[in-house]
Every structure is written in C-alpha cells, then in structure tokens.
Amino acid sequence: QSRSSAASDVYKRQVYINAEGYQIKTDYSGHFPVKELTEGKVQLKNGLLFGDDFKKKDGVNYYIKNDSVFYHDYEYQDNRLSKEFKLKQTEVYYVLNTKEENKFWDVDLIKMESDGNLVFYRQGNYYEEGQENKKIVNDGPINVFFDITEFKKDKKSGKYILNPTTVEFDALVKAEFFKPQLHLLRDTDKKK
Question: Is the dihedral of CA 137, 139, 140, 145 positive or negative?
Fold first, then answer.
C-alpha cells in the first residue's frame, strides 16, 4: 500500500490575512510502517524523510516509535501585495485581484464565516448558450449575467473580459456569478 493512500495522513491549513497580503500555513502529519523505509518508498537523508508522496520536497521531520514512522511538518505559501496582487476589504468579502501574465486580472472573493473558516469564491464554470458540455460539471449559462455588465470576448483566449462598475460588481456577487471553490477550515487545535 502506498503511504499517500494511508488514512493516517492529516493536512490542516491556516490562513493569515494582513495589510501586506496573506499567508497559508499547511501542517501535515501521519505515520506509516517502518518496513517502507527498506522498500525504497521513503528515504532518510540528513535526519529528514524524503519521498515522492510528501507534499514538502525539502524533507520532513520524523520520529520512530515501535514499528511506525511518525512525521510532522509545515510549509508556508506567502502572497505579498504588489502591483500585480491586490487585496481589498469590503463589508462581506475580501476581494483578491491577481494580474495574469496576459495583463488581465483574475478576481477571487474571500469570505470569513462566523465559525472562522474561510471560503474562496471564483467565477463559476459557465457555458455559452447552446454549447453545454454534458461531461463537464458547470454552473449554468453565462448569458444570464449579460444584463448586469458588458462581457467582451477575447479573441486569443476565448475568455470573457469584464470591467464592471462597483454597482455592477456588487450585482454580479448578488447574482452568484462567483461560486465557492475552496474551503479552508480554521485550526481548532488548542496549543499549550
């Protein structure tokens, strides 16, 4: 059995948002049988574990107890605000604007729920009228949003380009143009 399919793997994410951007801390831990060390699935080097199944490629802390290897480590993903990465707080959401290489902006909404969990929203997966692909899960036709703001289609990418006013943007949010894509659960472990 591959270690990556073991039920003992646990991943937790914490997100910190401040005036400079946001940071995601991912904790991961688990265990596997010591015999996997001799099977070549995992290697020990310089006091750290290495293996293709680990998320962190620069080694993971570990200890051995009885016939199991236990590991725990964490990594940070920093997203600093810049001219290409902007975060604005509104009444309900943080609006995250990320400039793509093609000079267009991606927009995500981040909402903190009452339990402290975060939900990331992104524009839904819509299809053009008459072009629905039954093999792809989608959120409906895009033309229902055409009355809210102007949609221009980029000839190179085939994507729609929007430049809504603040009122139009609020109307898109209210009409649920943005759909939940990622849920980050608040870390409930009490560290002492």
Answer: negative
Q: How many CA atoms lie within 13 A of 10 on its CB side?
A: 13
For residue range 115-144, list pLDDT tens digits in order.
877 888 888 777 776 666 666 666 777 888
- Answer whether 0.90 is exceeded by the pTM: no
Give the distance between the most distant pair of CA atoms in the chain.
65
**Of 62, 73, 7, 13, residue with least CA distance to 34:** 62
**Residue 43 DSSP one-character state:** E
**Which DSSP string do the residues of 82-120 spell out, in sequence order?**
BTTEEEEE-SS-EEEEEE-TTS-EEEEEEEE-TTS-EEE
Which long-range contacts link 34-39 to residues 24+ away (Cβ below 8 Å)? Answer: 34/64, 34/67, 34/68, 34/69, 35/67, 36/3, 36/69, 37/69
Question: CB of 2 within 8 A of CB of 41?
Answer: yes
Nearest alpha-carbon partner for 88 in 107, 116, 63: 107
- Helix residue ranges per DSSP H, the chain: 166-174
Q: In Å, how far are 60, 147, 156 from 76, measured between CA atoms?
A: 14, 41, 35
